[in-house]
Structure formats: C-alpha cells, structure tokens
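2 proteins. here.
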Amino acid sequence: MLRTCLRAATLAAAALAAAPAAAVEIGDDGLHKPDWLRETFKDISEDLAEANAEGRRLMIIVEQRGCIYCTEMHEKVFTDPAVEELIRAHYFVVQLNLFGDVPVTDLDGTTLPEKEMAVRWGVMFTPTLIFLPETVEPGQTVAEAAVAQMPGAFGRGTTEALLTWVRDHGYASGEHFQKYLADRMAGATD
C-alpha cells in the first residue's frame, strides 16, 4: 500500500514537472496579454513621459498573431521569476501588432498604423523588443533613439542580461552588449 502511494506521488510529481508553463491570456488581436503590459494610446512620446514619471524604462514589444516564438517568450522566458521581476520593477511595456491597424504616433509626431510603423522602424521579426532612453533628441524616431533592440526570441539568460544591461545604462559606457553577456556568462560558470 505504501509503495503504491509513493509510486502514485512520484508519477504525479513527474507529470507536474513535465507540464508546460501556464498559458498567458490571449487578447482579441491574438497577442499575449500579460498583466504587466500597459494599455496606452500608442503615442510613444506620451508613453516615454509616463515611463519616466514612474521611474521606469520604456520597452516596446512587437508581436504577431500565431507567433510561436512570442508564445515561447511569454510562456517560458517572461514567466521566469528573475525576468518577470525585472520587467515589473523597471519597465513600462507597450505592445504593438506587426500586422495591426491601431494608430501609433512616433517620437517625431508621425502617425501610422502599427504595421506601417513596424516597417518604418525596421522591425522584421517577432517578437522584437525595442528599448528607449529616458530622453530623446527632438525629431528622432523610435528607430533612431533606441538604445537596444532584440529581434527574435532568446532564452532566459540572454533576456535577463539585456533587461539588466538596459536598466543599468550599459550602453552608455560603450560596452557592447555581447561583451557584457559573455562576461556575465563566464562569471556564472566560475
């Protein structure tokens, strides 16, 4: 009897460990909607001002319906406790749909549908994370002002390192992110 109970408990624990991460809510547009996303009017200057007022960094995430890499990021990377804490504590996140029609106003005042703004910014992959500095030069676009851009899905370690590097203004020292990442990974194996 005890052996049967232990076997059942072991099998149940193994099934739970093998289960995929909890699914993130999907919106009517087919995009993932974690509760840390900000619903805004997609006026990037206003979003930047609001992020600054909260002491956060503005991160724009561009996604598309059915994107398997977006799902991977939302279900396995963004839900990692360290990554999620960085996002919640330090970032103001605005989502755009790569093929959407919602108007977006760029930093220079140009207003275009999401799909045309993504082309203007050179976004070709989903997900793409775009990070803005706290201040931008007048007339700059998001593409010109961005301090970092991560096109595509990366693992927890790289994503956490990028969020930390941007938060800590690593780009301001001139240290390339790849060097920062390599040094961080080398330190992790010591």
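next one coming up
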Amino acid sequence: MDHIYQDAIFLIERLHRHFLEVVKSELDRLGTEDVNNVQALILFNIGEEELTVGELTNRGYYLGSNVSYNVKKMVENEYLVHERSTHDRRSIRVRLSPKGLELYGRMKVMFQRHIEELEAGPHNVEELRQSMKALRHLEQFWTRLLALGLRGQMSNMSAA
C-alpha cells in the first residue's frame, strides 16, 4: 500500500502541473500574454458570479499561488472588476469584466473540446467516474487528517 499511496500523491502533483501546461498552451494558442495559467483558472472559477477573494481562495485550488496578488494583476490587466462590499467594507468582491468574460468563454470552449475528445477516445465515462470516486476518498482522508491534526494541536495548547 505504501508505494501505491506515494505513487498516487506524485501522480496527482504531475497531473496538476500537466494541466497547468495545457492551460498555458491554450493561452499561447489564443495569443493571450497578459494573464498566466493560474490566473486563467482563477478567472474560470469566478465565472459569471461575483465573489469575495476569501470565497475564491476557499473554492479554488491554486497550488503555490497568492490569490490576492493574482486578483490584483487581473484587475490591472482589466480581466476583473473589484469593489468593496457595501455590507462589509473590509471585504472586496470581484467579478469578470467584459475582457474577462471573453476569456472565460474561450476557456469554456477549451473544456468542452477536452470533454468531446475524451468521449471520442479510448477512455469512457465510467473510468473517469471511478477515478473521481478514488480521488474523493483520498480528499476525505486528507480532510480527516487535517481535522484531527487541528484538534490535536488545540488539545496540546489547552494542556500547556
């Protein structure tokens, strides 16, 4: 089991890097140079919604990235519009600008193309479902470990 677990971890990491390269390649193909692959994924996660930076951080999986910095860069490059919340002046809400919506549409087309290629290829939907099930179990396992670790730290702090 130990090598399978480690192989799974390394595969997940490689898959994430490969996917970021796929997004980068698509941005290059589109001639989009003022946004990087991580920023494009953040933009895609915002979609047609309006979110706070905190909600965006909790929703997305931006490995090794600073969401606040990337949001700032996308505002500067006119992909995002940001406004202070009327209810909580400390909170900043972001939504896609017209330029951001255009790139969002192109990203949706890319994802749709990937889906069509997967459906036409040797892989089937059931394989993907089984993979998702295994990945969700791993996510739940890690979530439990984090929760136990936090409780263990809290107990240690109370005892001190």
